[in-house]
Amino acid sequence: xxxxxxxxxxxxxxxxxxxxxxxxxxxxxxxxxxxxxxxxxxxxxxxxxxxxxxxxxxxxxxxxxxxxxxxxxxxxxxxxxxxxxxxxxxxxxxxxxxxxxxxxxxxxxxxxxxxxxxxxxxxxxxxxxxxxxxxxxxxxxxxxxxxxxxxxxxxxxxxxxxxxxxxxxxxxxxxxxxxxxxxxxxxxxxxxxxxxxxxxxxxxxxxxxxxxxxxxx
Amino acid sequence: xxxxxxxxxxxxxxxxxxxxxxxxxxxxxxxxxxxxxxxxxxxxxxxxxxxxxxxxxxxxxxxxxxxxxxxxxxxxxxxxxxxxxxxxxxxxxxxxxxxxxxxxxxxxxxxxxxxxxxxxxxxxxxxxxxxxxxxxxxxxxxxxxxxxxxxxxxxxxxxxxxxxxxxxxxxxxxxxxxxxxxxxxxxxxxxxxxxxxxxxxxxxxxxx
Lengths: 217, 208
Hints:
The structure holds two protein chains of two kinds. Chain A contains eight helices and no strands.
């Protein structure tokens, strides 16, 4: 390609220029994500969902909670920042925070499983699936909002972005679940709360990525 | 004494030049931000001025990273197309340099991957006497750099290579280079120091 062809290309780009609306600030989008989550939590409580059950919880509860909050904040930031050129550092820190959060949540749950000798009450898989489902329902609207941002921005890897969006927003859903779930057994917390983001990401990442690609055009 | 005076004069001249270049680059950054914001509102004249002013910078940026000038020109065009498609992602309150740098770096990376993929698919019937496949080209080239230096630069991590190229070879000030890459000055200095040390380990005391 000759250098004159480049100059011709540039003049054509300028001639065919159309106005665009800049994408929202990352901070505003994060606030919107949390707001949507709060609305989902309030609707859930209003329609008969379990109230918060924080009294009498132990240190393991706090550890898992911190891990889920960290995973949510980190993955959501990584998804948003990864779709904006020049925000690579924030994306990198977000990914590190997300991994640290998931490791903390899973690690503390595993430790709690090891501590308790009594068998888990009920069938852990049945109750865990209910918590995974609830976390997904609470996180799906925020995840769609993040994907809408990705579609407008510059998501070079839509599957990665959508995966991070699912992980971050379902982890946020898991925070609400963890705060209100009466079952405190370590195995249930591990399967139904700490693993919820990963389980849901495995299912939702591809369809969400498809939405990003479809609306990007 | 005379030598020391001359060295000190040369150093202060060089720092004056750098200061003038940095002030020039601050004005340039402000100009690009203004033009880019105008382009987002649909101002074609501002956009054309911006694109034409960016052209030599991007040619230099890409030229230092790809061997073939024709491929380099293709990549420069790819950068401008990406920039055009992604123009809604720029926010005028943020610096322009890191935004552009990220787009340019991704375009170069994509091109190198494409070269490696094509080279992996092609089967050579005769390899004796033919030039080496493109995939084995080092990702750093410059007419003024020796092959040894090019090889050494290609062997160090990308972040260090970037810092060394911007500061030592393109002679940007630390502040300029940090703004371009989008990291703090101390982070960039550390990368440049580690890169330079790695080059010294491979090439001896004065690698550049």
